[in-house]
Amino acid sequence: MGRPRAGNVGEGNSVAVSKNTSKALPAWVPALALFLVTAALYSPALRFDFVGYDDDDYVTENPYVQRGLTGEMAAWAFTSGYSANWHPLTWISHAADWQFAGAKPALHHATNIILHAINSVLLFMLLKRTTQAVWPSFVVAALFSVHPFNVESVAWIAERKNVLSMFFGLCSLIAFSEYTRRPKRSLYIASCFLLACGLMSKPMLVTWPFVMLLFDYWPLGRIKSPLRPLRPFLMDARKLVVEKVPFFLLAAASSVTTYLVQAQGGAMGSVESIPPLYRIGNALVSYCNYVVMTIWPFGLAAMYPHPFETLPLWKALAAAIALAATTWGVIACAGKARYLVTGWFLFLGTLVPVIGIVQVGSQAMADRYAYVPIIGLFIVLVWGFAEIRSRAKFSRNPERAVGCIVIALLMLRTWDQLPHWRNGIALWEHTIAVTHDNYIAHNYLGSALRLAKQPDRALAEFKESLRICPSHPGALVNVGVVLLNQGKPADAAKAFEKAIASNPRHGRANLNLAVAYFQMHDPAKALGQAQLAQQVLPDDPKVYNLLGILSDILGRPGEAANYLRKALQINPNYANAKSNLERVLSRQGPPK
Question: 436-588 is classed in which CATH architecture?
Answer without folding.
Answer: Alpha Horseshoe (1.25)
